Amino acid sequence: xxxxxxxxxxxxxxxxxxxxxxxxxxxxxxxxxxxxxxxxxxxxxxxxxxxxxxxxxxxxxxxxxxxxxxxxxxxxxxxxxxxxxxxxxxxxxxxxxxxxxxxxxxxxxxxxxxxxxxxxxxxx
Length: 124
What we know:
Transmembrane segments: 6-29
Keywords: Membrane, Transmembrane, Transmembrane helix
InterPro entries: Pilin-like
Structural class: mainly alpha
Order of helices and strands: HHHEEH
Protein name: Prepilin-type N-terminal cleavage/methylation domain-containing protein
């Protein structure tokens, strides 16, 4: 191979890389965001169940978004063995509130996590 051929091949590889890297990054970023929403939904459901056992009521009747906001705000039981212990999930962004709704639903006054996102999609 001559020097010109080697340089041509390197230029072609560079162009293909320049095209492929942003596409791969976009896919990875989207997947990471979905994973974050799932993990946040798991955390919200777990905190809600634990807080309910401690005597707090975060679930708003038939209002998933308000229930999520109640958990984010948090609360502290006034009596019982968990008196003074804080329950809540701080630090979620507005986009997180919208994103987790796909993986959460309300059933019989409880917040339910669904990893597939099918329960929430079926309600729409």
